[in-house]
Amino acid sequence: MAIQDTKPSSLSRVIAALGGLLVSLIALAPFASFTMLTITNHGFMLLMLVILGGLIAISAVGRLNQASILGLLAYVMALLLASWSWFYRDPVGSMLRLTPLLIIPVVIIGVQVKLFNSSSSQGVSPLFSIGSLLLMYQPWPGPLIGAAWGLAGGITSAYEAFSMPTLPALTYIVTYLIGSMMQGTLPWNPISLTPLSFYRVFVNNIAVYSNPAVLSLVIVMAVVYVASPSIARLIKGHASPILASLLASVASIIPMLTYDQSPILLITQTVAILLIAALPASYAGVWYVNSTDVLPMLYGSIADIPDRYNLMKYYHEDWEALIGLDSAKRELIIAAESFRSNGVRPIHGILLYGPAGTGKTALGLGYAAWLGLYRGFRVILVKSGRLMRGGSWEAAWRLERVFALARALQPSVIYIDEVDSIGRAREEAGTGGYRLVSVLLQNIDGVASRYDKVLVVATTNNVNALDEALIRPGRLGDLKIYVAKPPPELVKAIIMGVARQRGVIMPNWLLEKAGSLIETGAEAEALVNCIAVKQLAGVNDATQLEACLAGITKGIEAYDQFPTGSG
To answer: Which residues cross the membrane (predicted)?
Structure first.
């Protein structure tokens, strides 16, 4: 049985669109306040508000990377329009003022967007970076709220699979610090857009550059930001992404100290404003990038990620409705306990193998759905046909992305149907296939992934074709479950169970005959479906019903025994 379509439901699309609308409104709210406060020309003001509406609309339909690029261009345009009147008086001074305020965000936010584009994913944190920048030009407490927006972007970024929690706060801090130094003011004052003279920038403000306190703040900020990625990963592995992001973004407070207030009052004021401004925005961003309904939109180009509707569908159709595999289900449920203890190495792989048509796909898919619904796992479905498009080398790259996504979203489960199509013995796989198998081996049980909470559930009809290293303990050999053909009594139970689920009347004589001829659950399901079609058409003739059984058990030979026409 092939994996069914995993397109998000209509409800999930609506939730994702509303979520994108909400988060982009929050992230880009400073755009509106900047426009109203700093752009005096009504035509320019209307233009920027229309652009803001377009950015929000693009974000709502899930084009977050495009919205980030356009938002960055809108930031550049906003600063140019706000400085428009100054260009007539002093174009050189205006460019001297604007150049670092434009170049630094373009470079850092460009890196953010590139991380998402290179991984074929989407991210919302660059929008928070853009919003934070626009707050530094607004009156008090605008600059401090801008730091909070950068912090919110960092917290959100910590939950995004292919991002860096330091970048949103780094964008704001570096831009704001350089802007403050150029105009010779202490931190937390808004950045002015008035022209600067060469003398004022490089000579008159030399005291600001050489001030030991400012220099020490710059050094400390640089040290924290260089060290923060590794510190964040260490903390994230043992606590929560929020704590990791807070640590990575704590440098947003360091260079913002003023020196004319008591330290206690300053710290209290700064922390209070940061928390009040950052927490609501952070909550919206974190909810958005973790929502089961949004994940297919963020990472759907990498792999199939079912939303809650599809998980419920898989659970009911492929787990609850699966008959005769209770023992295998118990083993799978017990295996999930390894993810609850920090002192036990989580199981890395589960291999379901056996003859075709015995229910392996349904069992594996249903188990993945159960993990997603009741154990908080992120479910990632790998379709071999889709993975192999473009050849083995491209498939290896895609598989790397799948595992990187799974590690970022852990605890997670990767379900691979027909794993023999990508995990064949390396001596038989060719150069590209060798690379593909190596990627699979390294990611299931690599040095860095031994304690990652990433489970791979795979199925195969041909276990002998798999690379031996793939099915050893520590990889898919952690738990191997043989799914055998059911005995006759179980076949009858499966037929009756499927018939009850679908409201089909199964004649006793046909049930007894089918019990001795049908060998797999797939054949049992096909028989019930055939009889359902006959009954819907009003056909209850015994010969026609027996033709269903013959067609399943004898194949093409049944057409000679039960002809349907003269040809």
So the answer is: 12-32, 44-62, 69-88, 94-111, 146-162, 169-186, 206-227, 239-258, 264-289
